[in-house]
Amino acid sequence: MGRPLxxxxxxxxxxxxxxxxxxKNRLSQAIRRAVLSKKLLKIAPRIxxxxxxxxxxxxxxxxxxxxxxxLFPNAVMSHRSALEGGISPQGHVVLxxxxxxxxxxxxLTIRLIKGPGPDEEDTxxxxxxxxxxxxxxxxENLQPTRVRISSAKNLSQEExxxxxxxxxxIYGTDELNLLRDQARRVAxxxxxxxxxAHLEKLIGALLGTRSEVKLKxxxxxxxxxxxxxxxxxxxxxxxxxxxxxxxxxxxxxxNLTSNKAIINxxxxxxxxxxxxxxxxxAIEEAEQIVxxxxxxxxxxxxxxxxxxxxxxxxxxxxxETVPKSDSDLIQILLKRHAFLMAPREDKLPGTFKxxxxxxxxxxxxxxxxxxxxxxxxFKLYQxxxxxxxRALFVMFLVAEVHPFLDGxxxxxxxxxNAELHAADQCRIIIPTAYxxxxxxxxxxxxxxxxxxxxxxxxxxAQQFTSHISFDDYNVALTQLQASNAFLEPNEGKLIFxx
Length: 498
Known about the structure:
Layout: E1 18-20, H1 25-36, E2 41-44, E3 47-49, H2 56-62, H3 64-71, E4 76-77, H4 79-84, E5 92-97, E6 101-105, E7 108-114, E8 123-124, E9 130-131, H5 134-141, H6 157-171, H7 174-190, H8 193-206, H9 218-224, H10 231-246, H11 259-276, H12 283-291, H13 300-313, H14 316-319, H15 326-340, E10 358-359, E11 362-363, H16 370-382, H17 388-401, H18 408-422, H19 435-448, H20 451-466, H21 473-482
Parallel strand pairs: 4-9, 5-7
Antiparallel strand pairs: 1-3, 2-3, 4-5, 6-7, 8-9, 10-11
Helix pairs in contact: 5-7, 7-8, 10-16, 10-17, 11-13, 15-16, 16-17, 17-18, 19-20
């Protein structure tokens, strides 16, 4: 790219977008003539362009890695740039080179650090550039630095700890041992023994073998104490909690004024909650399971799902039980799951998951981070008012952590309705016709960090439930049928009973 392209086209089209003056006399003269004839434009020292229309910032941005290789051949993209994936969105990059200097181009700031050239384990990149190996990059980021701003050459120790924690979360503890081995090799070759000693201490602390090391990241500290958690999920829960604190939520009083109403409501809760999860029965079959203790032929486990859910949510004492501490939350979840999933031994009833689970593109919390994430979530739960705010929060907390191999959605909805029942507020059913709205709102909060559709959806479901007369089973059934509650989402829309 440093020379005119050989072509038979007219001369004004012979120059590439970026031309670099290498100091060669022939090329320099050609560039000088092209500038005088307005075929090239100088946009930075030794850098010219044939593009007179675009902003120089955009031109540099398009060709930035090529330029780095031309300006600083055999430089190593190092320090924070190696760990952050190259040039930052703000246009900053750190290179290890023959000397130290800061070079500024339109839209690009280059921090040159004097240091060793490419190591045998560094990765070749584009145009005579290299990227520090992972072991080297961690050592470089642990070098002493006086600058404490975003343009510093290094990530902070807190950020380093978070990245080490992330390696464990994604790949397991063996990955830290591989990193330590590589860093040990590199440290000997490029003389970074002190930095390696620092890295070794941090890794040991995260693995729980160096309790004397003081960690700066709460995330890393929790892991060192055997209580790792999913920081991104906790941030998401904080977003939901803040939204719930900032908005006044309408409080609907309970419409369950008798034991009969509680039983009837519990039946429909069980029917619809299981239907959402794919345990589908005709309403008449569900009636036989709950009210006649009849097991449907060849569907004993599915029948138990309906019956155990009903037994749990029709139990006043159980539905008045809400967590008072993070350990209490964990015990309640385990107890309810054990009861709900009792016949399904392959789903580990009453035990948190032992493998990662997922739904579509969503990967839920790692098994070893379940308890820590639930504990962090509980602290946010405590800050909310009892009733609908806590109900909204705890339902999403359980659904998003997905702490069990199966039954997570059902447990989440039981936890939600327990909060409402304990506060004497209207419980919530999610009719079949409303299933897609429910799942889409959950997904939007999970993937786009937008609480509003989720809160709006749950409040609408609660308003719908408040219109149902549960004191009489046949009246409630007729109202639900007239409201299209039993229809699939593509068969009809949910309408409120008059």
